[in-house]
Structure formats: structure tokens, C-alpha cells
Amino acid sequence: MVKNLQKKAAPTDTIRVFDINKAVTEKLVSEVQGGAKVEVSESPLDAVKDADTVITVLPEPVHVKKVYSSFLDSIPPRDRIFIDCSTIDPSSSQEVAGWVTKAKQGHFVDSPMSGGVVGAAAGTLTFMLGADADLVPRVEPVLEKMGRRILHCGKQGTGLSAKLANNYLLAINNIATAEAMNLGIRWGLDPKTLAEIINVSTGKCWPSEVNNPVKGVVETAPAGRDYAGGFGVSLMKKDLKLAMLAADEAGARLELATKARELYEAVEADEKCAGRDFSVVYRYIGGKEE
Questions:
Q1: At what angle are helices 90-102 and 61-71 packed, to 10 degrees?
Q2: Long-range contacts (CB closer than 8 Å, 24 or more residues apart) made by 63-70
Q3: pTM over 0.85
Q4: CATH number for region 161-285
Q5: Where in the chain is the domain with CATH 3.40.50.720?
Q6: CA 183: distance to chain centroid?
Q7: At a CB cut-off of 8 Å and minimum separation 6, what does 83 contact?
Q8: Does the active-site annotation cover 102?
């Protein structure tokens, strides 16, 4: 993300980066050429104190709150734009937005992304933006330097709502695809034939067409490399948990959520599946891999 931002930003711009893994940021600085200047910061405060635009990407709600609380009261008030690309729950995002407003530091918008590591490197990410309409022209040019599509979902918090609704559906579809493929193969169907039928029929979905859990069906899918890479089981479990939290707050019933969460927890705890792409659910339920 930073490389694409740096390459497309003006040479007069300066991008200050901070990560707890300093070696990663130093490597980044050594690799960039042309475009904006890149500097390594010693802390979040050091990175944001002179910034007009701040982009954050963090693992959990607690990390987002910790980072923002570490600098909001220590920097001079300014009409900044804070773009948080983390996948967290909408309530936590709205809470931090309130902190930014109270501190008179500008505006906080949520813009979770889809596209993974490959999309981040290629600059083809999709951003789901939650922001007041008048802020969109200020935010879009920044996101366009890192992604291909920016979808304005509505007011602050709605980008996260859209992302979590999508990932809830993805979590369920992934399990159902693994079960359907296992079922058909045990009935004697060829995996590629079964997948072809599903993908021209009403069962078609991203896990069946792009991320099929059976080795050899989709050559580029993680199943072909022992489920390495891709979207990790732990990340799917995290997003499912966040979707359940947000659904509970909204009063929305998720009839399949609890069972799905229990399954992903069990998959993550299995040493044959832990740390792998979430399509490894197929292995966990006993799917044939040869």
C-alpha cells in the first residue's frame, strides 16, 4: 500500500511511516524510488504530528483505540483527515471518530479494504468508505493511489458494516463449499466436473470459483500449496466475531453464526490446519486431498 501511495504521490510530499516492526519500515525506505519522500517515524505521535492525512491499518479494535489515544491530545488541532483501513467493529470505529471530533483534530473515516496482500501490492484494492458525503472528495484521491475501486457506503461506520456483512457471507459460503465438494467427491464425482457444475449453477460463489478448497480445481488457489498464504483462518474467525458483535448491537439474527464460529475455532486449534488459508476447512471436515 505504501509503495503505491509513495509512487503516485507528488515529489513534494513526505510520507512518514511507523510499524512496531522497524526492520520492515527500514526495508521499505531502502526500496522506494522516485515519487514522495518516505521517512521512518519512531512512534505514532512522530508520524502524525505534522500530517494533514493519516492512514492507519491495525489488527484489532483495541489496537486502533490504543494508537489514537496515544497522540490525539498531544498534537496541535488541525483539520486533518484520518483514514482507518482496519477491519474492526463499527461501534469502536464510531467511538474513535468521536475522540477525533472532541479533540478538534478534523475528521475520522472508516475505509476497510478487500483484495488481500496481492491487491495491496498490485494497487487493485477495493475500499469500502464510511464518511459524510462532503468528505469523499478529500478521501478518494488518497485511496485511489492504493486501490482500484472506492465504494462510498454512507456515513462514518458504514464501510465497516458493509465489510463485515460481506465477510459473514464469505465465512458461511466457505464452509458450505467445503461440505458440498466433499459430498460430491464421496458420491464419485470428479472434483473439476463438480466445481464446473456449481460455478454455472445457483451454488456459485467466490469460494467455489476462485478459492476452491480442493487441490487441482483452481490452480492458483491455496489448496494447491498445502493451503499456505491466502486469508488465514484466524482472520476469518476474527471477522466473524466482529460481524456477530455488530449484528447483536443491531438486533439482527444470525442463525448460522455460532456454529460457524465454533467450526473456525476448532480448525484454528487443529495443528494440521492452523495458520493456513481458511479454505483448509475442507481438510478439517475430512475432505479427500489426493
A1: 10
A2: 64/88, 64/92, 64/93, 64/96, 65/92, 65/95, 65/96, 68/96, 68/99, 68/100, 69/99, 70/43, 70/44, 70/45
A3: yes
A4: 1.10.1040.10
A5: 1-155
A6: 31
A7: 53, 54, 55, 56, 109, 111, 139, 142, 143
A8: no
> Rounded to the nearest 10 degrees, what angle do helices 257-269 and 158-186 cross at?
70
Element (H, E) at 119: helix 116-122
State the Cα–Cα distance between residues 107 and 166, nearest whole angstrom. Answer: 26
Query: What are the cell numbers at 162?
Result: 458493509
CB 36 within 8 A of CB 15: yes
Neighbours of 95 (CB within 10 A): 16
Cell numbers linked to 103: 479533540
Grid coordinates given for 158: 458504514
Q: Does domain 1-155 have CATH number 3.40.50.720?
A: yes
Cβ atoms of residues 160 and 112 within 8 Å: yes
Closest CA to 155 of 134, 126, 125, 127: 134
User: Which of 3, 66, 163, 288 does the annotation list as catalytic?
Assistant: 163
Q: pLDDT 10s digit of each residue in the chain, 290 long?
A: 999 999 999 999 999 999 999 999 999 888 888 889 999 999 999 999 999 999 999 999 999 999 999 999 999 999 999 999 999 999 999 999 999 999 999 999 999 998 877 788 888 999 999 999 999 999 999 999 999 999 999 999 999 999 999 999 999 999 999 999 999 999 999 999 999 999 999 999 999 999 999 999 999 999 999 999 999 999 999 999 999 999 999 999 999 999 999 999 999 999 999 999 999 999 999 999 97
